[in-house]
Amino acid sequence: MNPFKYGTIVSGKDFCGRKTLLKQIIGYIESSQHIVVLGERRVGKSSAVYEAVLKCKIGRLFYVDLLGIKSIDSLCRRILRAIVVLEQKTGWFDKIVKTLSYLKPTISVDPITSMPTISFDASVEMKANSIPEVLTLIESLGKKRPLVVVFDEFQDILNLQEDAHEALALLRSKIQFQSDIPYIFVGSIRHKMDEIFTHHDSPFFKSAIPLTVDPLPYEEFSRFLKKKFATGQRKIDDEALEKVFKIANNIPGDIQQLCEVLWEVTSEKEMISLDKLKNALELIFAREQKSYENYVSLLTNIQLRCLMAIAKEGGKSVFSVSFMKSAGFNNPSSVQRAITRLTKLNILFESGGEYRFINPFFRAWLSYKG
Ligand SMILES: Nc1ncnc2c1ncn2[C@@H]1O[C@H](COP(=O)(O)OP(=O)(O)OP(=O)(O)O)[C@@H](O)[C@H]1O
Ligand SMILES: [Mg+2]
Fold this sequence. Notes:
Blueprint: H1 19-30, E1 35-39, H2 45-56, E2 60-65, H3 72-86, H4 90-99, E3 106-109, E4 116-119, H5 130-144, E5 147-152, H6 164-175, E6 183-187, H7 190-198, E7 209-213, H8 218-230, E8 235-236, H9 238-247, H10 252-264, E9 271-272, H11 276-297, H12 301-313, H13 321-327, H14 332-344, E10 348-351, E11 354-357, H15 360-369
Parallel strand pairs: 1-6, 1-7, 2-5, 5-6, 8-9
Antiparallel strand pairs: 3-4, 10-11
Helix pairs in contact: 1-2, 3-5, 5-6, 10-11, 11-15, 12-14, 12-15
Magnesium ion (MG) is lined by residues 45-46, 152.
């Protein structure tokens, strides 16, 4: 069985390293300190938080994923769903039913699992005044048995646009009185998380201690990956593995994705060296081609030219004369416009003054296609 996992939270034997970070997170949980966990996409934020909560054995994990929420209603429903997942016992349903009677909660028993489930009236739209109510529910859950509350993809709260400030203010005003419950906010779109936690006029200004999740060091992660290859009697040499890290820009999720296909295109007792990378990448391209083509179809010629140039030359000095020349631009403002659009489409992101591909394999595909 292919031992490489990507795109999911990894824990236990699938979780590599991060001793110091786990210790830090556990320490903050023990002192009920709120933290904000930041890092690039697929670097391992959710896994680190999950592993720390499991390891510390102090509180039950109360996990709410805010990915893609669009309204206060969806924010509240996500929290309620997390409560239902945590508390399968009917006694708790009574409490939810009482607190949220206007949502006409109905309890039924799932015919397959025999577990009780709860559903709410979809035609009722929860408004700002529901936020304190659902947070009070969290508080009473925590009184029963200690909780660690994790809000993942927290930056998506800014999707609520004109409601975002009010939602944040209401969350903050409840959370600050729940001093026994550690809250962990996880997020990856740097400037959005900064907007929430470091802007003076944000209700969450300096409300949590920031922790950054960095890529795993080569030494440690490569040892872990080599062991995984060995479970299928495969050996990978350092040259190939270093190249994997390079293509994936050191991002653990992308490294594991590339290892997953390297495994697929090789067989037992095989020595994996650089020459296998081409087949592996082609397998990724075959799987992801449709989405690449879809992205390309959204771009104008100018935007595509700019993207190709970044794929080939990197995105460090996109306003330099040589970059503009190779991309066929003659003024920086048209580069800026193209980059703004490419960033909006979530193809590129900016990190420390450099524009990078969110998906490193899309970059590889573009330069492969020429
Ligand atoms: N400690 C780790 N050990 C091994 N692999 C890891 C580790 N952390 C992350 N990964 C790899 O990265 C992938 C993504 O991990 P995770 O979902 O925790 O990252 P994330 O930063 O929360 O990502 P996203 O930005 O998508 O929310 C995992 O499926 C796994 O392949
Ligand atoms: Mg995550």
